[in-house]
Structure formats: C-alpha cells, structure tokens
Design brief:
Layout (H helix, E strand, L loop, with lengths): L37 E5 L9 E3 L3 H9 L2 E3 L11 E3 L12 H14 L5 E5 L18 H12 L6 E2 L4 E2 L14 H6 L5 H16 L7 H15 L6
Parallel strand pairs: 1-5
Antiparallel strand pairs: 2-5, 3-4, 6-7
C-alpha cells in the first residue's frame, strides 16, 4: 500500500551461532560449564570514573553494576554530556523491576563458593583540555592483562576509596610513553564531582522505593564514607 515495511525492529541485533566465534570453547557444552573468572562492567565517563578498578567482593560489585552510567554522545538521544544510568547495561532488555534484578545478582553471589571478581573500566576519561587521557583501542589490552593477573592472584593492587587499582609498575607500558602524571590523573578523586555523583546515584535509587535491596544502600553508604570520611546524609 505504499508504506515502508522495516526489515527488523530498530533495536534488533544481528546474531550468529556462538560456535562461529574464533575464541569459542568446546567446554561450552560440558555439563560443568565454563569457568568465569571476571565480570567487567564499563561506562563512558569524561570525568569521575577511573580507568579501572576491582571491587572488594560480590556485593560491592553488584552495587557498581547497579550504578553503571555513561555520558550521552552525539549519536544518542538527549542532552550531550548528560549522565544516563544503565545498570549492568540491561535497562533496554530487563522486562521487570530492576530492583528485583539487583536482588537476583545478590542471590547468585550467595550460591557460589568462589564468585567471579568484578571490575569496572572507563576508557574515556578526559583531561582539563578535553583530551582523552588513555590511548584506548589496542592499548586497552594492557588493562585487561592486569585484570587477568588479578584473577590469577599473581599481583597485588593498591587500595583506594573507589576500589582496588593497579600499581603503575604492574601495567605493561612497553612500546608506548605514558607518564606517571597522566597515570595519576586517571585515578584522581575529585570530591566536588563525587559529591554530585553520589547525589545522582541516590536519586536514581530512590526511584525503586522499598523494592531496592538494602545491600545496595549499604554499599552506597560505605562508598560515601570511604570518599568523604563521614556518614552519608539522609
């Protein structure tokens, strides 16, 4: 009738058999499954979020996943630079209350004798001139290599209010020049920015009302205390 018929839903994805993936493990079909050593969350943040950090445990990791956020780019609807919360990158796909989804993650952690380590990465932090600090692309493997080493417990991290971060000597900087000053910029904690960030997270959690697991708020209060050295205000 002269009307355009779309070939797929605008939010559809192209899929292919997992067996076509070159890194596919044949253990995928074993009844014991494939061991998962790490879960890596990530967001696109110009400020605030450091390059990488490891959480201290599963519950803290679920909180980090629940607070995932990215700043909108020109390719997305909304105001450029606006922070959009997307827990576990699942907002478009979770068909029920996200607070119950958080509870599901927390319950999973209780059933595992050795849950995977949880990490958060942010390749997009910028300096005062708006320039990306970390080179990104293939150099991200330098950070992923540190994550693997942490899973194998062959190196020790530095403990910060945000989480466990790499020692500069534990990152392979061969073939590139990266100054200690730039490295420290990737992990600095700006209290003014984090005051706004924590307030934004609290407002996001308030949307869930009594459905929000108490463990999430516990981790929120712990993080606030670690950053500012005082209890979070009501």
């Amino acid at each position: 009738e002269g009307k355009t018929i779309l070939g797929a839903h605008p939010n559809s994805r192209f899929t292919a058999p997992i067996s076509q993936c070159p890194t596919f493990s044949q253990k995928h079909f074993d009844r014991d499954g494939v061991k998962i050593s790490a879960i890596v969350f990530g967001g696109r943040r110009n400020r605030t979020a450091p390059l990488v950090f490891e959480t201290r445990g599963w519950q803290e990791g679920v909180y980090v996943g629940a607070t995932m956020a990215s700043e909108l780019t020109a390719a997305q609807m909304g105001q450029l630079g606006q922070v959009r919360r997307d827990p576990m990158a699942m907002i478009p796909f979770c068909g029920y209350n996200m607070a119950e989804y958080f509870r599901h993650w927390l319950n999973m952690g209780k059933k595992m004798s050795k849950p995977p380590k949880i990490f958060h990465v942010n390749w997009f932090k910028r300096d005062e001139n708006g320039k990306f600090i970390w080179p990104g692309y293939g150099d991200n493997m330098r950070v992923l290599s540190w994550i693997i080493n942490r899973c194998e417990e062959v190196i020790r991290p530095d403990d910060t209010p945000l989480g466990l971060i790499p020692k500069i000597e534990d990152i392979d900087f061969s073939d590139i020049q990266f100054s200690p000053d730039l490295w420290h910029k990737l992990f600095d904690i700006n209290h003014a920015e984090w005051e706004q960030e924590m307030d934004d997270r609290k407002k996001f959690f308030d949307r869930f009302g009594d459905s929000l697991p108490k463990e999430i708020l516990e981790e929120h209060k712990k993080l606030f205390n670690r950053i500012f050295g005082r209890a979070v205000s009501a």
